[in-house]
Amino acid sequence: MNLTYFLSILVFSPLLGILVLSFLPKTQESLIKTVGFLATIPALVLALIAYFQYRAGAGLEQLNEKVSWIQFGDSGQMGNLFSIDYELGLDGFSLIMVVLTAVISTLAAIASIHIKKEWKGYFMLFLLLEVGMLGVFAAENLILFFIFFEITLIPTFFLIGKWGYFEKENAAYSFLIYNGLGSAVLLIVIMVLFARTGTANIDALMAAMNADNPQLVAPISENMKMGLLIALLIAFGVKLPIFPLHSWMVKVHVQAPPSIVMLHAGVLLKIGAFGLIRFGMGIFPEQFQSLAVWLAVLGVVNLLYGAFLAFVQTDFKMVLAYSSISHMGIVLIGLGALNEAGIQGAIFQVVSHGLIAALLFFLVSVFYERVQTSNIQNLGGLAKGMPITAGFLLAGAMASLGLPGMSGFVSEFMAFLGLFKEMPILAAVGAIGIIMTAVYLLRAVLGITYGKALRDFAGVTDMRKFEFVPVLVLVGLIVLIGVYPSVLSEPLTSTLETIMLGIGG
Amino acid sequence: MMENAWIIPLFPLLSFLFLILFGKRLKEASAYIGILFTLASLVYSILVLFDRFSAPTFKAEGVWLTIGDVQLTAGFEVNQLNALMLVIVSLVSFLVHTYSKGYMQGDDRFPVFYAYLGLFTFAMLGLVISPNLLQTYFFWELVGLGSFLLIGFYFYKEEAKAAAKKAFIMTRIGDVGLLIGMILLFWQAGSFEYDEIFAAVEAGAISSTMITLTAILIFVGAVGKSGQFPLHTWLPDAMEGPTPVSALIHAATMVAAGVYLVAALFPLFTASETALMTVAVIGAFTAIFAASIGLVQKDIKRVLAYSTVSQLGYMMLALGSAGYVAGVFHLMTHAFFKALLFLAAGSVIHAVHTQNIEHMGGLWKKLRVTGPLFLIGTLAISGVPLFSGFFSKDEILIAAWAHGNTVLFWLAVIAAFFTAFYMFRLFFMVFAGEARTDMKNVHESPSVMTLPMVVLGVLAVVAGYVNTPWFGTFLGDWLVEDNHALGHGHIEGPAWIMIVATAVSLLGIFLAWLMYGKRSLARDWLTSRMPLSYNVLYNKYYIDEFYSLTVVNGAKFISSFLRFLEVFLVEGLVKSVTGITSSLGRLGSKFQNGQIQTYGTVAFVGLAILVVIYAFTGGYLK
């Protein structure tokens, strides 16, 4: 098999869909939806091939691609410095993120059946967004990463602003301003690094920054390193989001169409965690260590803040939004612990929450479609009219509150295992969040499904045909990770070793 | 046999999966699937138990998850305690599966009920063969899920919804204690494996403070699961679930899991006198506390629920008094007689369609099978000589006395008096005298329901004879065989203890008979003479009210405060960010006024700034 362009094909395959869509008349609803769905398949297949090849023992290096792209100055004089290559590659962690992205994209494309208007534009943006997301994880240098990062912003902005609910414009602008500022800060960090080291390649940067006698174009003082790391924290903290930078994402969760929220909560937020681990921890390991306590504190704050606020929301989508904030706290807790258990827990949480959030938001779209509300007070007894949906909703809640046998437990457990080793008191405070998670999720889910039926469910149908696909796939993956966590931990082994080596653990 | 014991929990799991997928089509035939699969578990469990009599402990494990250099394992272990628990759980589960075929007949969600029963049984069997704390925790949570689903089985009832939620949250509070204790223990002992933890404890590798702390934290988990004070309030509410569920989960198996956990970690607890004392005090207090509430309740299932809480307190007292055998022995006898009482109560409810004992009466003549069986259960729990409860309760009292817990001993004696009284009060009010309401269409339950009760009735009588001071302490000797950390198979105690225990239980029965059987004492003497204490007891010491006032309102207050913060502070931040952005934008657009002079000025000033920066920094921002 010729692997030269494997990753490029993987990343850019959704463009083919955009090309086909551009020739279709925009009234052909079912045809557009089918094409939109099919266009996500090649990336999925390729990602799965890569995953299984890797599990079977094939090295990921053979997927690396490198084409000379931009050269500043005279190459004879500068050597390899100040050149930007088009380079893609994967390690265990980014491979998993690519698989996650591909899976959730395909499922979100199925969930897009509930989109009511202008399907053609919707799917073109949707597929462009997928390219951006795949590229972010496959990029091997910071410049390329940034470009893909920006590619995700624009389609998301339009997808929220045009196909969302009542306050969609407001949510879209909130999204754009916050993320725009975040990426401006990120761009500054990237430029400083590039200017001072002469390279944007992530591996080269990691090596250059952590060598004993770094060969830099210009020196980087310890203080500046700290400053750069804090800037990175802000840039990715907006994305994750870290309290108090979260309010834009609550709006997006509530106002965006559920299929886009699946991508947003499932993948886009994860870029924040990915960036923190890959760049924060990878490029500034020493500084990261001295900030670890604060990260853990922020994690506990996120966890509790989100949980307590989710407890008093009346709209189920708001509950899920704050729940996402709370669950991202667990990522920070794991990173703050800065040991194997914690970091592995954080990565697990990234994947696990991606799957669970996608599942819950898909289920929201399923019942919203039928009862036109997601307000808990207007619902109740849904299990009477839609027993299957209600059952899966409960399963999603159980996964989210960390029931053993589902992925949420493994990640939560490892993150806390890690933090209890380093900061037991803080961890014990955080453990209150475990109780509160159960409290708010049961309040919300039982409020929707149990109790007296507040409405007549005659004529309301339960889940049907294709709606089963995303639900079954997601529940299957959640249970698989929960029961057999090695599917995730084994591909991560080498990434973790690299990280631990960096922080000297 | 033992090397394949892992298959025992899988049968009910298969039943669960099968019924979730195909139950709708099978309808009430689902019962046969459930019954057959649990029967398979039962048969296999019995074979394993017999195998264990002659062979040593068997343990097998594989890697479940690798974290750095640490490998977390999963597997199974068949030691004495596990083998015994396997039989108890699968037997009660099988009987309840059978009984439910009659009890749940006609329910719309009959297959779902059987599916949930299968899920629960799977988790419970998985729990009792876990060889390490992590796996125990894993199944510990899953039995909680099974319990939650079955309490909320009648999901359309608001009470059932509230009860299910309460059960899940209250036990989760305990579970967090367990989780923390287990993680701390892991970083001390370097493993979740029971034997490695015990080895570390024995080798003195863990400081005594840490042993006490972790043991108490783990006990918090047991308190939640076993409905011990102060986390007991969910258990009586759990009676909203169908009655067979109460028999299986909230009497015989899951609520005993807390006791099982303390027993499984017994060497850890005995290493700390403080931890043992905590267990004993909580146990004894719960025993008398719940028994006193049971004195005045009017709902047949709630009386039984409080008696369960009280009896679990007894078991904790036994374990806290270093009476390993006594605790496990009472766990076993209690499983039989309490499951019997619940199933018999279910049979009564099935017949009269009410749970209020004030509306019952005179059922002895109408329920010719249920009545005598209920009496057997009542005699057993009251500790009347020759019934199983007599022997196990005696063991507990002796253990408490021998360990020097004199105050707790007398508390337990008083609780035994209460127990005899309220159980016979219940019996007389339901079965003696005349019917107090119209009871025309009362029928005995079908044999599919009475037969399981008969089996339990026989066990409630004979189960005590495996461990008696008269004929030999077979169970005790076998349980502690090859394991000195568990103490002795039999603890010698003064003979008067047995006499006192018998006397108080007969006294309790006699008093109940005077008031509710013969009625020579007015039934309302307590109500009329001491309305305050009656109200306190009837309202369960107002603990629910207290919790809702403090904990629930506390959480709501924090949430409201944070929401305030969110609205004013965080939203304020948002507003200022958008404000700054748009005013910058406006400022910028002012320069775009079409006048060439402005453009020139802006360009020049910008260039000047850049030059200044360059001059000072040499091109780099330091």
Characterization of the model:
The complex is a heterodimer of chains A (505) and B (622). With 505 residues, chain A is mainly alpha-helical. Chain A has two domains: 1-283, no CATH class; 286-505, no CATH class. Chain A is 75% helix and 3% strand. In chain A, helix 1 (6-22) packs antiparallel against helix 2 (29-38) and helix 2 (29-38) runs parallel beside helix 6. The radius of gyration of chain A is 22 Å and the shape is globular. Chain A starts with 5 loop residues before the first helix and ends with a helix. The mean pLDDT of chain A is 89. Chain B is mainly α and 622 residues long. Chain B has four domains: 1-131; 132-521, no CATH class; 538-591; 597-621. Chain B contains 25 helices and two strands. Chain B has a two-stranded antiparallel sheet with strand order 1-2. In chain B, a hairpin with a 2-residue loop joins strand 1 and strand 2 (70-78). In chain B, helix 3 packs antiparallel against helix 10 (243-252) and helix 14 crosses helix 17 (388-402). Chain B is globular and about 110 Å long. The model of chain B has no long low-confidence stretch (mean pLDDT 88). Chains A and B meet through helix 8, helix 13, helix 15, helix 18 and helix 19 of A and strand 1, helix 5, helix 6 and helix 24 of B. Chain B: Residues 130-419 form the NADH:quinone oxidoreductase/Mrp antiporter transmembrane domain. Chain B: It comes from Cytobacillus firmus (Bacillus firmus).
- Tell me the structural class of chain A: mainly alpha
Q: Care to count the β-strands of chain A?
A: 2
Taken together, the total number of domains of chain B comes to 4
| Main beta-sheet strand count, sense and barrel state of chain A | 2 strands, antiparallel
Number of domains of chain A: 2
User: What is the straight-line distance between the termini of chain A?
Assistant: 39 Å
Distance between the termini of chain B: 74 Å
- Mean pLDDT of chain A, rounded to whole units? 89
Q: Helical proportion of chain A? A: over 70%
Radius of gyration of chain A: 22 Å
Number of helices of chain B: 25
Q: Enumerate the spans of chain B where pLDDT stays under 50 for 5 or more consecutive residues.
A: none
The sequence of SSEs of chain A as H and E is: HHHEHEHHHHHHHHHHHHHHHHH
Biggest protein-protein contact in the assembly: A-B, 65 and 53 residues
**Care to count the β-strands of chain B?**
2
Low-confidence stretches of chain A: none
Spatial ordering of strands, largest sheet of chain B: 1-2
Overall, the morphology of chain B is globular
Derived structural class of chain B: mainly alpha
